[in-house]
Write a structure and sequence with these properties.
Number of helices: 11
Radius of gyration: 25 Å
CATH architecture of the largest domain: 4-Layer Sandwich
Bound molecules: zinc ion
Distance between the termini: 58 Å
Strand order of the largest sheet: 11-19-18-21-22-13
Largest sheet: 6 strands, mixed
């Protein structure tokens, strides 16, 4: 059943459906915008083959109370009334559109229907999955949207591609029809917009969120401590695990050693686990005893590792062993972080929000993936490239760092675990919830299960996988 409110206003006592709970409208859209997106996709899916729907806050105005929803409530929630069209576009064009989620003057950004997930970083969509499968640049996707959104009204970019279906209902009618079919309607979780990522721009200095900068001079009394730290780490193959996780009462370190390319002379008589162990030991000593900044502690740790093999090995060799570093330390009222390389840090905030600190420079090398061995060698620890802990102590100053206040828990994972988000359609919120609720070991089991059933998107089927979760307790 489709209502068209443009032509025919139904009697005011007629209800289309019932909301099971508050359908909240937040500043950027939230559950109400997500419900609108799902309703509009449902209204044209069977006839047009649409796979995704984008709505904006413009078409979802006010929170709906948990109640019987009649015409007045629907008109208040979604008064715009443009018809739903379907545009056939490509994965690459959709990524481009979502890469700059330019809010309009009221702060509205596009909200996607359930099934489409993406991550943002450095002004780009880093990964995108549709119903759990990675979206490629050339893949055709049919996206439903209000004709005005597709045409680029309201200061937004015009959508590229071809309009392939124009017989959808108006969006208010689509919401009414959805309520008729699905009442009582539960509120979507409101987590489809990627969390704000704390990015590599402005590296080399400490940046903070809601707390004073670590550069301002540590420390006073160390007040934020972990009530509990849990972690798990499993190798991806028969080879030794090149990840390492170490924790103390107020800090966690996760290292991911870079596997040497086959047949490449590293100039080093040691192996990757040797380097990771040297770095880890020096970092543990620094974090336990020093009040220096995290980048200062890392720089000193790299110097210790360099000194341990400078006599036997050629540290000028660009293939000398190296590792990513992700470290956190609780200080007064906040948690400091440093990320160097592709092991992200996740923050569960006291108010339920999620923050992700990541270093996406490896994702942005010239020419895009797949990378050649030569390109990676040339861009490692080089300006404009990516930075890791190896034979160059000054790489520590390139870490993405800052501090986050009002934290409930902190997760630190290697890319063998963050592939849940980058490859398999989890949101960062899903990963935080799983770390907090089920624990690191269960999260790694979920990775292995998805790797077995879906296979890798690129590279190794199984990578070394490490996850740590620190639950904050305040002293
Ligand atoms: Zn060596």
């Amino acid at each position: 059943m489709l209502y068209s409110f443009k032509c025919n206003t139904p009697p005011s006592d007629e209800a289309s459906g019932v909301a099971a709970e508050d359908l909240t409208r937040t500043a950027s859209g939230g559950p109400l915008a997500e419900l609108a997106a799902d309703a509009q996709l449902a209204s044209v899916r069977a006839r047009s083959g649409a796979q995704v729907r984008s709505s904006t806050g413009m078409t979802s105005r006010r929170t709906c109370p948990p109640d019987r929803l009649g015409f007045e409530q629907l008109r208040n929630a979604q008064p715009a009334g443009p018809a739903v069209n379907v545009q056939t576009t490509t994965g690459g064009q959709l990524k481009k559109l979502l890469a700059t989620p330019k809010p309009n003057a009221a702060g509205w950004v596009p909200t996607l229907s359930a099934g489409l997930r993406y991550t943002l970083g450095g002004g780009k969509v880093l990964s995108m999955t549709l119903d759990g499968a990675p979206v490629t640049a050339t893949q055709e996707i049919r996206v439903a949207g209000a004709w005005s959104l597709i045409a680029g009204f309201d200061g937004r970019p015009r959508w590229e591609g071809t309009t392939t279906y124009t017989s959808g209902p108006d969006d208010t009618g689509a919401l009414a029809a959805y309520l008729v079919a699905h009442s009582p309607v539960p509120a979507p979780p409101g987590d489809r917009l990627p969390p704000v990522r704390l990015l590599a721009a402005g590296v080399g200095g400490d940046r903070s969120q809601g707390g004073s900068s670590a550069m301002g001079g540590c420390c006073g009394t160390v007040a934020v401590m972990f009530a509990e730290v849990t972690y798990a780490s499993t190798p991806g193959s028969e080879r030794p695990n090149e990840d390492l996780v170490i924790a103390g009462p107020s800090w966690i370190v996760v290292l991911d050693g870079a596997t040497a390319a086959a047949g490449v002379d590293s100039g080093c008589v040691h192996d990757v686990p040797w380097l990771v162990a040297r770095l880890g030991g020096a970092l543990a000593a620094g974090l336990s005893q020093s009040k220096a900044s995290l980048s200062g502690i890392l720089e000193a740790a790299i110097e210790v590792a360099v000194a341990a093999h400078s006599g036997t090995c050629d540290l000028g060799n660009p293939d000398s062993p190296s590792a990513t570093v992700a470290m956190v330390r609780g200080v007064e009222g906040r948690v400091e972080y440093l990320v160097l390389g592709d092991s992200p840090v996740l923050f569960a905030l006291a108010d339920g929000g999620v923050r992700v600190a990541s270093d996406d420079r490896l994702e942005g090398l010239p020419g895009g993936r797949p990378y050649t061995v030569e390109l990676v060698r040339r861009m490692r620890n080089a300006p404009g490239g990516f930075w890791v802990a190896g034979s160059r102590p000054e790489a520590a100053r390139q870490g993405v760092c800052g501090a986050v206040a009002d934290v409930r828990g902190v997760g630190v994972v290697t890319d063998g675990v963050s592939r849940l988000v980058e490859w398999y359609g989890w949101s960062w919120g899903d990963l935080v919830a799983a770390l907090e609720g089920k624990g690191p070991q269960a999260v790694i089991r979920a990775v292995r299960e998805l790797e077995r059933t879906r296979g890798p998107v690129r590279g190794k089927r199984h990578d070394d996988a490490t996850a740590a979760w620190g639950r904050i307790g305040h002293m």
